[in-house]
Design goal:
Blueprint (H helix, E strand, L loop, with lengths): L19 H10 L5 H18 L6 E3 L7 H8 L17 H10 L9 E3 L6 E3 L2 E2 L11 H11 L5 E6 L1 H6 L2 E2 L13 H18 L3 E5 L9 H15 L6 E6 L6 H7 L5 E5 L6 H4 L10 E7 L9 H12 L4 E6 L18 H4 L5 H16 L4 H10 L9 H8 L11 H12 L5 E2 L9 H11 L5 H22 L16 H4 L5 E2 L6 E4 L2 E3 L3 E2 L11 H9 L6 E5 L1 H6 L2 E2 L5 H21 L4 E5 L14 H16 L7 E6 L8 H6 L4 E4 L7 H8 L5 E4 L12 H14 L6 E2 L10 H20 L1
Parallel strand pairs: 1-5, 4-6, 5-7, 7-8, 8-9, 9-10, 10-11, 12-23, 16-18, 17-19, 19-20, 20-21, 21-22
Antiparallel strand pairs: 2-3, 13-16, 14-15
The structure holds glutamine and zinc ion (ZN).
The site of zinc ion (ZN) has 6 residues, from loops.
């Protein structure tokens, strides 16, 4: 028997409390430090993690990654796509090959990146074909386990993405036959995992943790059967550690029954996302004989746990299983390191927060309280560790949300709006525009940083931004665009910018979380009722409009995207919070209208990102998501043209919701997918303006005018000219003027030509 898991977490941040890994990676990639330097930083981060986790009964090992835990398995299995081995074998070091997969080389584009469930983390999508060979190429999990033991960890548990989820998260390699399913390679992959189990046992590991979270998404019978087969095979390995199968980010549904009937020794459940799972525990055949790791501390949000409540819930399953352990609901990868370094937050907010370190303390305390039941001291400690601080209430905001009626979420019929807007704006067919941001030059960034640091005073800063706006407006006039933008020089980030000014949000100093590889984000914390005491964007928009007779687009970020890229309070339904943000935006729209802005774009870049893992939950989500957008925009006058922008082309499933936003114009990514989206829109009867991107801004390539013309022609086949807009795929912020200027010029020329032919 392996030692009990007791209190644990399923994973830990690995970027370093001060983003040490980010800095080390970037300097290694830039060639200014050596692989040894990088390894030194990495082992220091791992040592820090071991210390941070030392209060727990057991800890995961190997949750460190140089880039991504899915890419780690690709390297482990040697399933490196052949384009990274043009000569059929690895050319440089294993580490450099790994970074080549993540970042690409001159000859090989990087592996595709996609979102890890409904979090803001992105993984590298494995590419699996019929010919992919799998072998245990390296023993990193074994090495990292040994390192942990040497570092004093007694109850370490190697943590690895599970074999079935690895394949379910993969895509068919280029050149695989039509319909090829990576899961068809399961037996070969499981054979390597079986070998690894033997190695881990030999190294002394008592437990191993396999993340099978792909089963919180809808899965077919065949996929469930793959899960059964994989774990029957793995549990039959003669000398092996106990196996903990992890389901995070949702409800594993039927996969729980499948895994419970196998001989795995432990199952971890996410009781934060799926609290009702508790009720299934007693009736799930096979679970009674296992260790149940109850994920009761939220691994992906920043709020303190209601420990007494969790404790009493945990106690109800205590008798139902062989052994109960307590844990985070998922890896703590999704939260920052440490609240205690945040000295600029309101104490009433700080008192409600728990980042990774604080969550570890919560789990440790829960573990002790569960095992040493009856100890008064402990019970008191549990109560003391819980916060009685609540979100500050803004009665005005509450009353306003309560008074929202369904009429507030709708505008006049589109036909009425269309006529009013045509009269007001007088735009040509195939009107040209951009998505909002223009390239952010070092100068602009420096001015923002200087202003933030107090090195530039308000008047100077305003002047610098106005100069930039003027430059961008003149450029657009010169290019001949029909609808202009101010270029967003004053915005660091499309969410942070709004969060910085709206009451109800807080910004951290060091609250970084990994988005992918070395890339980190610092999500604002939406902690209280949101209001908008004064205009945010109006002055800039008004100034920009004053420079030109052409219509200037006001530029806002929508409620869903603001929520998606923040840590959001969990003490009320998300829909209520979204409506509060929507009302703030509604006021901003009214003020923009008053200032003479006739076109307003409300970006919903993240609409798709918050889709829950299971389809049965989509309807409820889309209801509040679409409802909040409509509340934000529902007060706009008929003559005001509302645009929205969505960042990707795979909308298939949410196309009705996009139609439901009822925007007058929807701009959308389409250049790479060659306008496929238009047919989908047509199918649901979308009959308003649409601007499929004709310039792929994710690539530094400058497309030719002919290429753009071909895309326009393709779009014209699906959409009549008077509803078709011509624009890039997304904002131009990350590109340089050397690419942007010629491309926009070509785009406008191609549009004018198409218009006149
Ligand atoms: N208006 C924003 C910009 O142009 C939109 C960015 C986005 O969609 N991600 O930068
Ligand atoms: Zn976009």
């Amino acid at each position: 028997m392996s030692a009990p898991i007791g209190s644990t977490v399923l994973g830990y941040p690995r970027i370093g409390p001060r983003r040490e890994l980010k800095k080390a990676l970037e300097s290694y990639w830039a060639g200014t430090s050596s692989a040894d330097d990088l390894q030194t930083v990495a082992s220091e981060i791992r040592a820090g993690t071991r210390t941070d986790l030392s209060a727990l009964d057991s800890q995961p090992t190997g949750t460190f990654s140089f880039y991504d835990q899915v890419a780690d398995v690709t390297a482990l299995l040697d399933a490196v796509p052949p384009r990274f081995r043009p000569d059929g074998r690895r050319s440089g070091s294993a580490l450099d090959e790994y970074f080549a997969m993540a970042r690409g080389t001159e000859t090989a584009p990087p592996m595709e990146m996609t979102k890890w469930f409904d979090t803001n983390y992105h993984y590298l999508v494995p590419e699996i074909g019929p010919d992919t060979t799998f072998r245990l190429a390296e023993k990193t999990p074994v090495d990292l386990y040994r390192e942990a033991v040497d570092g004093g960890v007694r109850n370490g548990r190697p943590a690895i993405v599970g074999p079935v989820s690895y394949l379910l998260l993969a895509k068919a390699a280029d050149g695989a036959p039509e319909g090829f399913d990576p899961v068809s390679r399961l037996d070969d992959v499981v054979a390597v995992y079986a070998e690894l189990l033997g190695e881990l046992a030999a190294a002394g590991a008592g437990w191993v943790q396999f993340d099978e979270s792909a089963f919180v998404q809808d899965r077919s019978e065949a996929e469930l059967d793959a899960l059964r087969r994989a774990y029957e095979r793995l549990t039959s390995v003669s000398t092996r550690p106990s196996i903990l199968t992890v389901f995070s980010y949702g409800d594993p549904g039927p996969a729980l029954d499948v895994i419970a009937r196998t001989d795995v020794e432990g199952v971890a459940l996410d009781l934060v996302t799926a609290p009702d799972l508790v009720d299934r525990v007693p009736s799930t055949t096979g679970l009674r004989d296992k260790t149940l790791v109850a994920g009761v501390v939220d691994g992906r949000n920043v709020w303190r746990t209601d420990l007494p409540r969790v404790l009493s819930r945990a106690a109800t399953v205590l008798g139902g299983v062989a052994e109960l352990a307590v844990s985070s609901s998922c890896s703590l990868l999704h939260v920052p390191y440490d609240v205690s370094v945040e000295d600029a937050l309101e104490p009433t907010v700080t008192a409600r927060l728990a980042f990774a370190r604080e969550k570890v303390a919560e789990v440790a305390l829960l573990g002790r309280a569960l095992t040493q039941e009856g100890s008064d001291d402990l019970r008191r400690a549990v109560v003391d560790a819980s916060t009685n601080q609540r979100a500050a209430v803004d009665e005005t905001v509450r009353a306003r949300v309560a008074a929202v009626e369904s009429a507030d979420r709708s505008r006049s019929a589109y036909d009425v709006r269309r006529k009013a807007q045509a009269a007001e704006l007088g735009l040509p067919d195939l009107a040209t525009t951009t998505i909002g941001s223009f390239p952010q030059t070092p100068d602009v960034r420096r001015a923002r940083a200087d202003f933030a640091a107090g090195r530039l005073d308000g008047a100077d800063y305003t002047k610098r931004m106005q100069d930039e706006i003027e430059r961008v407006v003149r450029l657009q006039e010169d290019l001949g665009l029909d609808v202009l933008v101010h270029g967003e020089p004053e915005r660091n980030d499309m969410v942070q910018y709004f969060a910085d000014t709206l009451p109800g949000f807080a910004t951290t100093k060091l609250g970084w979380v990994q988005s992918y590889g070395s890339r980190c984000v610092r999500p604002p914390i939406l902690h209280g009722d949101v209001s908008r005491p004064e205009p945010i964007t109006v002055e800039w928009a008004q100034y920009a409009q004053s420079l030109t007779p052409k219509p200037m687009k006001g530029m806002l970020t929508g409620p869903v995207t603001i929520l998606a890229w923040s840590f959001v309070r969990d003490d009320q339904p998300l829909g209520v919070t979204a409506d509060q943000v929507a009302l703030a935006l509604r006021d901003e729209i009214a003020d923009l209208e008053d200032a003479g802005i006739r076109i307003i774009q409300v970006d919903e870049a993240a609409l798709r990102e918050l889709l829950p893992p299971r389809r049965s939950d989509w309807g409820a989500y889309l209801d509040w998501a679409v409802g909040s957008f409509r509340l934000a925009t529902g007060g706009a006058a008929d003559e005001t043209q509302i645009h929205t922008h969505l960042c990707y082309s795979e909308f298939g499933d949410v196309i009705d919701a996009i139609d439901g936003l009822d925007a007058d114009v929807t701009t959308i990514e389409a250049a790479r997918s060659r306008m496929e989206i238009l047919a989908d829109l047509e199918k649901v009867g979308y009959a308003r303006g649409v601007g499929p991107g004709v310039y792929d801004i994710h690539s530094p390539r400058v497309p030719t005018r002919d290429e753009i013309a071909a895309l326009i022609a393709e779009a014209q086949r699906a959409v009549p000219d008077d509803r078709l807009w011509i624009n890039p795929d997304c904002g131009l912020k990350t590109r340089g003027y050397a690419e942007v200027e010629p491309t926009l010029r070509a785009m406008v020329e191609a549009a004018v030509e198409a218009r006149n032919s």
